[in-house]
Design a protein that fits this description.
Radius of gyration of chain A: 11 Å
Radius of gyration of chain B: 22 Å
Helix content of chain B: under 10%
Low-confidence stretches of chain B: none
Low-confidence stretches of chain A: none
Structural class of chain A: alpha+beta
Mean pLDDT of chain A: 94
Number of strands of chain A: 3
Distance between the termini of chain B: 47 Å
Oligomer: heterodimer
């Protein structure tokens, strides 16, 4: 399983549209797509009990 | 008679045989060298190929010019941490497995080692994945096992051939293995080439190139594609704003990618939509870089674009900024 440093939800107009991940020192933006392997890894990471940072969708 | 000869030749050796992308290791968009920090287990290196190793920093990986007469590049696997098994693999997208699954296929490649004193057992496998299509667990190794014991694969991954020592020597030679891809429910195929010894010497090299996977029980000549064609095939899975030949995360201001020019100075949302260089396999993960090569923000403004991805052929972004220009670099990754 991937060992993300952090996973943060991203929003646009109040709608959850993706995640920002920090992994092995690299910061990236991951879309909500079941075919994206980073997205798949995030779901596995969450299922293992890890916590996603959610700062809400307030603009 | 002459026409019959031409037709026979074409039918025996049709084009588009090779289901491997970048089999001759020409495309190296991420970098041409992967050392400590970028050579971990299960990490992509030269385009479409990733490391499988018993731990991290087991091998340095480079795009090499140590080649047979039939290639310009090979992938060089240089032992860094001794006494560990290591190799490379490529996952074939479900859409590109058409014709392979349910048939006999042959994996071929050219290889050599720098010395056979320790690197005396190189193997190759054709692996079927019967989990969800294109949701392959790329680290297919459950346990590496003892020397000359084929690694145990994870659930949903099955050896279709019985891997055995190919007796790779210090001279370039072509090797091949064949198998019937008959695992029920197979959706993807993974090719895997590795060193199966557990007593290695630092600085020993395994070189591999001209990897081909084709339908049939015999290995034909490696199918040469143009560099441009191979690059486009790779960009379905990974693409970048940097010039080809410039590594991702390269420090410097040359060849910055301009996302916006000529905005006003108001502190408002600014952005737009850009088209990917080729349609990507899935909505990609986007990574942005500044001039120092650090990820997260572009150079100007020193912010991360807010990316809205709704399509595999374009992306939309904005930043709330007073800046009249936006520039930096980015990558888009949709690997398997």
């Amino acid at each position: 399983m991937r060992n993300f440093t952090s996973v943060t939800k991203t929003y646009y107009n109040g709608e959850h549209i993706g995640y920002i991940i920090v992994d092995n020192g690299k910061t990236s933006q991951v879309p909500l797509d079941f075919n994206n392997t980073d997205y798949q890894d995030i779901q596995e990471w969450i299922a293992e009990g890890n916590t996603v940072i959610d700062n809400g969708g307030g603009e | 008679m002459a026409i019959q000869k031409v037709i026979s030749s074409v039918l025996d050796n049709p084009g588009r045989r090779n289901h491997i992308i970048n089999g001759n290791m020409q495309v190296a968009q991420r970098n041409t060298s992967f050392t400590s920090g970028s050579n971990n287990d299960d990490v992509y290196t030269l385009d479409r190929f990733y490391i499988l190793s018993d731990g991290n920093d087991i091998i340095d990986v480079t795009q090499s010019t140590e080649v047979p007469s039939t290639a310009l590049n090979s992938i060089a696997l240089d032992v860094e941490t001794v006494n560990k098994k290591f190799g490379i693999a490529q996952i074939i997208e479900n859409k590109n497995c058409s014709g392979l699954i349910g048939n006999t296929v042959t994996l071929s490649f050219e290889a050599k080692v720098s010395a056979t004193t320790k690197l005396d057992n190189v193997k190759a496998a054709i692996v079927a994945w019967d989990g969800t299509a294109d949701s392959v667990t790329s680290d297919i190794i459950s346990a590496w096992g003892a020397e000359d014991t084929n690694p145990t694969l994870i659930a949903n991954a099955t050896y279709e051939n019985t891997p055995a020592n190919l007796n790779v020597t210090t001279s370039w030679a072509k090797y091949s293995v064949s198998a019937s891809v008959d695992t029920s429910g197979a959706n993807n195929i993974i090719v895997f080439i590795w060193s199966d010894v557990t007593d290695t010497t630092a600085g020993d090299f395994l070189y591999i190139t001209n990897i081909q996977l084709e339908v049939g029980s015999t290995a034909s000549d490696f199918e040469q594609k143009s560099f441009g064609e191979e690059l486009v095939l790779c960009q379905r899975y990974f693409q970048k704003s940097y010039a080809q030949g410039t590594p991702v995360g390269n420090a410097g201001s040359a060849n910055r990618y301009y996302y916006l020019i000529g905005g006003n100075a108001d502190n408002i949302n600014k952005g737009g939509s850009l088209t990917f260089q080729t349609q990507m396999r899935a909505l990609p993960t986007m990574t942005f870089y500044n001039d120092a090569g650090a990820s997260g923000n572009i150079q100007l403004p020193a912010s991360a674009p807010n990316v809205i991805l709704l399509s595999t052929h374009h992306w939309t972004f904005y930043i709330t900024t007073t800046s009249r220009e936006m520039y930096g670099h980015h990558t888009a990754e949709a690997e398997l």
